[in-house]
Every structure is written in C-alpha cells, then in structure tokens.
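Pasting as-is:
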Amino acid sequence: MELQKVVIKIPLTGSKEPDLALVGAQFTKWIQESSIPGVLIDVADYSHMHEGLGVILAGHEYIFSLDQQEGVNGLRVAYRLNSEDSLASRIKAGYDLVKKGAELLASANISISVSSEECYVGVADRLNVTDSVSKDLLAATKEALGESVSCLEEASAKALPMIKVKL
C-alpha cells in the first residue's frame, strides 16, 4: 500500500519568534475568507506545550500549524485523509500549501519567513510504513520538488517517519 498521510514542514528563518497570538488571529481570518483551499474548521493554541504544535488551523483534509516540534520552528501541514493522488503529487501540494501560508502571513505583516533551502517530508501513516520509507520519500520528493533534492538526515525511529531534505 502506498504511503498516504503526508507531512511537510518548512523551517522558519531568522531568530525572531513570530507572535503566536497574531498567527492564530490570521488563521481565524483564513477560515472566514477561505484564504487557503479545503474545509477549514477551527483554530487552537497549543503554545503552552513545550516543543508542541504551537498554533494550529484544523481543516477536514489537513492540519496546518506554526509548529515547534523537535526544537525546530516551522510551518507545517499534515494531511489527515487518504488520497488517490500519487505520493509525489501530495508532497508537491503540501509544499505549495505551506509556501502559500507563509506568503499570507508575511502579507499580513507577521514577521515570518521560511527556508528556501530545506524542508522536512514525512508521513503520519505508521500502518503503511516499510523499511524503505526514507528511500520512497526521497524519490517522491525528487519527483515533486526537483531532482536536485538531496537527503540531509533521517528522523529518529521514535518519531514519525521523516526526512530532512536540501532543496
């Protein structure tokens, strides 16, 4: 069975932490204005959790967040539903969604910028994970984002299957 529930995280650049209250307010505005695709449901603030999800925008198809997990601040999308699309097309869609979110936050004068040099690609799909998950993710990421993509590191076994790639 093909990997399904794609997770994309693009690290933030710069040392200044974004104001999570402003991000949450902006996520609420996205729901009201349908600023990003999908059925958007609610916003929640998990910033009280150390290295947690930060602020999330829960949608039917995915959860979008300003994520602080594993000590890396970044914008993250985690798809919740299975799809008929290829793994590469889901990676591309997730990457594009995170980039659009970064642009929307920046246009709202929220001091935020994402890396153009690296991102994390993974799956929240433990039932379909095989020993070749890193190889499969890298191949699909190359197809989605370009052949010049290279693997910088693999996530630890306790974490979700994820690779860090150089763009």
